[in-house]
Write a structure and sequence with these properties.
five-stranded mixed beta sheet; Cytidine Deaminase, domain 2; 227 residues
């Protein structure tokens, strides 16, 4: 049954106009982006199929690229790009919210996590970032040090301290993600962290913490007593 044959209050676009965007389901919101379905499915039914393929997890949906979305019947470049663009806008909105948090003092692992979480959303590979802080633990800058594969990334200690010295940083918080979802630090993670902590002592720069981030959760080396 085509959406145009539905009662007006049940059509996604009309429903949004009549009742507001908050009452729409995820499938209905995606259906608006799609605009139409295919010969066998309405836009809502197609949207539900896409969501079912990722277990109705919007975080997993955000990881699908244009090529993967095009595998669904009725999804061409234009529709796939619309979905990707909408997801990116959502991520950037969170980034703009995070920008307002950056003026605050970083006093806990949770505060550091909230600042950096959006940088690791939807990544299928590992990245290593640093947050540079002044003596008041306020943010000076943040920098991606390296990008790797699914199971690891190479970290150059010289680059970390180069950026810290150039920005006259007094403290560093390190971050990397585990795409697998496993927050347990590897032996390599532990060895690297301890190596950097020792090296920082000669430069009068404090390694304040190292966070492993995955799927809206994190592990803190400091909170766990590793450093």
């Amino acid at each position: 049954m085509k959406i145009t044959t539905w009662a007006e209050e049940d059509r996604p676009r009309e429903k949004l106009l009549l009742k507001g965007r908050h009452v729409l389901s995820n499938a209905e919101l995606i259906a608006i982006l799609l605009g139409s379905g295919n010969r066998e499915e309405s836009a809502v039914e197609l949207a539900k199929k896409i969501l079912m393929s990722v277990d109705n997890d919007l975080s997993q949906l955000a990881k699908l690229n244009v090529k993967q979305l095009r595998k669904f019947k009725g999804i061409g470049n234009a529709k796939a790009i619309s979905i990707c663009a909408a997801i990116e806008l959502g991520r950037r909105r969170k980034d703009s919210h995070d920008a307002s948090l950056q003026q605050k003092q970083i006093s806990s692992s949770e505060a550091a996590f909230l600042i950096m979480e959006s940088h690791f959303l939807d990544l299928n590979h590992e990245q290593f970032w640093i947050l540079l802080l002044n003596r008041s633990n306020k943010i000076i800058d943040k920098k991606c040090i390296s990008t790797g594969g699914v199971s690891g990334t190479v970290v150059d200690a010289k680059l970390i301290f180069k950026y810290a010295l150039e920005n006259l940083a007094s403290g560093i918080i390190m971050f990397h993600n585990h795409p697998s979802g496993n927050l347990k630090p590897s032996q390599q993670d532990i060895s690297l962290t301890k190596k950097l902590v020792e090296a920082s002592k000669n430069l009068d720069i404090n390694i304040l913490d190292h966070l492993i981030i995955s799927q809206h959760k994190y592990f803190s080396f400091k909170d766990d007593g590793v450093i």
